[in-house]
Amino acid sequence: EVQLVESGGGLVQPGRSLRLSCAASGFTFDDYALYWVRQAPGKGLEWVSGISWNSGDIAYADSVKGRFTISRDNAKNSLYLQMNSLRAEDTAFYYCAKGPAAPVSNYYFDYWGQGTLVTVSS
Amino acid sequence: DIVMTQSPDSLAVSLGERATINCKSSQSVLYRYNNKNYLAWYQQKPGQPPKLLIYWASTRESGVPDRFSGSGSGTDFTLTISSLQAEDVAVYYCQQYYTTLSWTFGQGTKVEIK
Question: What pLDDT does B38 receive?
């Protein structure tokens, strides 16, 4: 059974940093691309970032480019999102999602984690 | 970026009746070289993460009940629930994955029981 478990969320002040993690199990981790998608409370879905199986291709939404960094450790079956210079508008549930293939681009998301809440407030 | 627009924003349907959700993309998501539409549908129940229902516009994900179906091509797509069940109460999102290294979702359609 595919499992994606996010952690690292919490309350953080504007301008500070936070690192999210996603622990994966139930599939061959380094065979698949992975993504972060966020959802502000009561709002819709926004794709944040994606990374290919070997970290060779990485993409960011314009709203986070230059502030967020995605990475993965295939030896630890883990995905990360380093979030710097956080703003109030970054407040959201952050979901880790898996793609159905190794390349990051031009695929949908077939499994999602339960999410972790990031609240940016003073 | 491709903008995805869903209609309606919400709808109330009686149990056992048909529910239809529309999704329109600001440009075609049909890739002519493989004749595939790069369009997916997700279901999100209250307090839960999204769940993949349909991909390539009309391919049902394994385990998804056959009352869910997707149709359309190019810029206009439809998700149909043929006979609404109580467990189908959720918000439904369409998503395009046509654009290289960029993904966008529709704003969501809330489905309730009338």
Answer: 98
Query: Tokens 């065979």 label which residue?
Result: A31
Residues 42-71 on B with a CB inside 8 Å of A are: 42, 44, 48-52, 55, 61
**A39 CA: distance to closest CA in chain B (Å):** 10
Per DSSP (E only), the strands in B34-108 are 36-37, 39-44, 51-55, 59-60, 68-73, 76-81, 90-96, 104-105
Of A105, A99, A115, which is closest to residue A38 (Cα–Cα)? A115
Mean of the per-residue pLDDT values for chain A?
97
Question: Within 13 Å of residue A122, how many CA atoms lie on the same side as its CB?
Answer: 3
The residue type of A57 is D
Residues of chain A with pLDDT below 50 are none
CB contact under 8 A, A110 and B93: no
